[in-house]
Amino acid sequence: MLKKAMVPVAVLGAGLCLAASAQAAMLKVRESKQFGDYLTDGVGRALYMFSGDTQGTPHAKPKVTCVDACLATWTPLYEGTKLDADRNTVDVGMINTVTADDGKIVTYAGWPLYYGINDMGATQPKTTGETQFGGTWYLVDPAGHPIEKK
User: Fold this and answer.
1) For the chain, does the N or the C end have fewer beta carbons within 10 angstroms?
2) What is the number of domains present in the chain?
3) How many CB atoms sit inside 10 A of residue 141's CB?
4) pLDDT confidence of residue 85
5) Residue 14 class from Cβ within 10 Å (0-12 exposed, 13-18 middle, 19+ buried)?
6) How many Cα atoms occupy the beta-carbon half-sphere of 121 within 13 Å?
């Protein structure tokens, strides 16, 4: 069941121009014929989870394994500037953060969230189920599950 309140969460994609705006972005859900419903940022850019990371649970924090060259291709959604969740499409109770070496990364359903370099500037995701850097990269559905290739 989705919560009925807007909950501010601070986020910033490293190296992205989105943070330059003082306006709040929205974490929301978009629909694609190819992939179905998937999680996006406020301008519709797809967000991904990495199977190489460890999903957080109520008793354990997520573990981020994307470092160095991985971060040049898959930019984390960092805490930093205000972001609200669309209460009609996103379960705000699933939003949290995890501390990494270079800042706090926003998580959804315990999975750290990333932007794909192939999606920079795009409003439709290019892929899901791509294997790189020792794991597989998936779009995230509104329930916090990976979206397999279709």
Assistant:
1) N
2) 1
3) 17
4) 83
5) middle
6) 0
